[in-house]
Amino acid sequence: MQIYSKSDVGLKRTSNQDNFACAQDDSVTWAVVCDGMGGLSGGDIASKIAVDTVREAISSKKYGSINEENVRDIFIKIFNKANEEIFCASMKNEELKGMGTTMVLSAILGCKVHVAHVGDSRAYLLGKDNIKQLTIDHSMVQQMIDKGEITVEEAKEHPKKNIITRAIGAEDFVVADYICEDFKDEDTLLMCTDGLTNYIDNDELLKICNDYHGDELVDVLISTANNCGGSDNITVVVIQR
What pLDDT, on the 0 to 100 scale, is given for residue 40? Predict the structure, then answer.
């Protein structure tokens, strides 16, 4: 399994509130991507706490070794722990009150990819001729799309497109969505923050992923988002066999 990753501050922000981590051992390949929110420093802190929680839990096998039977339970425990850590930190410091972060976490075991998420950072599964968005945004515009109030195209320009309805650490309890899909030999897992998906639609994502590979693919995705405006931090993780 090959992992390629990069985070970029973008063209308009002075700091990067995104955070990510990825690793693999003999049995599992995993990655986490977070996009922090909350004041000048709160987003940085929230996304770092979340990523550190994931890294420590998986590397130390705090909840046991991840396998096909327990991955969902371990993911839920990790999300709950990250939520607790961030929420408690925000309660102890008035300047950090209200901070939170999105989080998308994946694990590839054998021929399956497992994904859990909160917020609007995304995971995609790409084949040679197809792309599937594995995550559904926890956002205000997604709720409006689901109710038929706006179209997907209208959501891209909606003034409330950046408002998320679920975040790690924003409240004392959080619910993560989970999905498991087949992961075939020629498939690609793409994880990213909305700094990428605000500018690149699914068709263009598929084309770029077919035209480029490895580190060059990650660089092209980020440069494309920056060339289209780069108004936010951009983080991309790509996993390929």
Answer: 62
Q: Give residue 193's Cα distance to chain centre.
A: 6
- Mean per-residue pLDDT for 19-45? 91
What's the token pair of residue 146? 């689901």
Q: Which residue has the tokens 């619910």?
A: 175
Structure tokens at 14: 């002075």
State the residue for tokens 């046991």: 64
Rounded Cα distance between 210 and 116, Å, is: 25
Residue 195: pLDDT above 90?
yes
CB atoms within 10 A of CB 84: 17
Per-residue confidence (pLDDT) for residue 241, from 0 to 100: 85
Q: Is the pLDDT of residue 39 over 70?
A: no
- Domain chopping of the chain, boundaries: 2-240
Superfamily of the domain at 2-240: PPM-type phosphatase domain (3.60.40.10)
